[in-house]
Amino acid sequence: MTKLWKLALVASVGMGSIGVLAVPAAQAVPTPCTGTISNTRVAGDVEVPGGATCTLSNVAVGNRVLVDPGGNLVMLGTSVAGNLVATQPASIRIDSLGCAGTSCTTPSVVRGAANIDGTTSIPAGLTKNSICNGSKVTGSNLVITNSASAAPWDLGGSTCSFGGISVFSVTRIQNNAGNVTLANSRSGDNINVSANTGGGSLVNNHSGGSILCGGAGANNPVWTASGNSAAFTNQSKLGTC
Q1: Which end of the chain is least crowded, N or C, by CB within 10 Å?
Q2: Burial of 10: CB neighbours in 10 Å, binned 0-12, 13-18, 19+
Q3: Where do the structural domains in the chain lie, given as residue ranges?
Q4: Which residues does 55 contact at the CB level (< 8 Å), separation at least 6?
């Protein structure tokens, strides 16, 4: 038995049973990103430390992208095999590469979920955080919550010269103090816009479920809305949300 200490042998005397517990494998250390990573593949997670600006350009990330509080993320034509998780980031910009004419050849793709909570500021040299120009969340939901008043968002609006975004499941925009535009975009399930206090607009979007305004509390001020469609309920059809 002395050679088998990588396993834990557990005896349950009262029950007269024996079980074997495997020792879990060590977690891989994330790759820190404090500058530019381009034209490569990164196995495992990428982590953006607080205070750093990470640019991922034409990168294939093998698992998650993690943005720590105060980190700045720029994703250009980058694919993420897992989730994008940003907790109190300073700023976020997700965009495509190879844009010309009316489309982009290399969109950024998150193959899991994208959860961005508590954005505090905007990218250097820009006026808004953004997800633009054919960028996609193909595995689950896009959730943007609790952004500060100094952290407005543009999702497919005027910042995005080559169009909006697409989300496999639910798009949820909630409890944001910054202004948010969602335009020219598609969501496979519900678009849920609620409890936002910075104003916003909902323009030319399509939901494969319902467009819901105020499910977790009314938007105050109300958002303007036009040109939206939904497979089921469309609460924006009267021009506000």
Answers
A1: N
A2: exposed
A3: 31-230
A4: 35, 36, 37, 38, 74, 76
